[in-house]
Amino acid sequence: MTWVAIAALALGTYAMRLAGPLLRSRVTVPAAVERYLSLAAVALLAALVATAALLKGAEFAGWARPAGVLVGAVLAWRKLPFVVVVMAAAATTALLRLLGVP
Predict the structure, then answer these.
(1) Which domain of life is it from (predicted)?
(2) What does the DSSP 8-state code read for residue 79?
(3) Does the chain have fewer CB atoms within 10 Å around its N or its C terminus?
(4) Is the dihedral of CA 47, 82, 71, 96 positive or negative?
(5) Residues near 97 by beta carbon (within 8 Å), at least 6 away in sequence
(6) Is 62 exposed, middle or buried (0-12, 13-18, 19+ CB in 10 A)?
């Protein structure tokens, strides 16, 4: 039964990905709708980052994780290489946890 579900999801995903190029010339979306869709994508990404940075399960994750995310965000904003951003964020979180910050 699991393989049937996996196959159905794979086919559905492929169909959705194929529908974009096939229907692009047939469906027109107003410029206002395109703008709202791009804003919705940004809002969804911001909500995902906020929940991942602040929560562990249903509880507050402590101050070390948000501090690491903040360091990473600042370095990414300064356009540093991705590896540097990730390493600095992880090091900040690890150092704060080593110092006893939850």
Answers:
(1) Bacteria
(2) T
(3) N
(4) positive
(5) 64
(6) middle
Assign 24 a pLDDT band (cuts: 50, 70, 90). Answer: confident
User: Which contacts of 31-36 are long-range, i.e. CB under 8 A and separated by 24 or more positions?
Assistant: none
Q: Can you give the pTM of this predicted structure?
A: 0.64
Q: With contact defined as beta carbons under 8 Å apart, do 101 and 64 qualify?
A: yes
CA gap 61, 18 in Å, rounded: 40
- Evaluate whether 53 touches 65 at the Cβ level (below 8 Å): yes
Provide the token pair at 93. 């979180």
| Alpha-carbon gap, residue 96 to 21, rounded angstroms | 48
* CA angle at 97 for the pair 93 and 100, rounded to the nearest 5°: 150
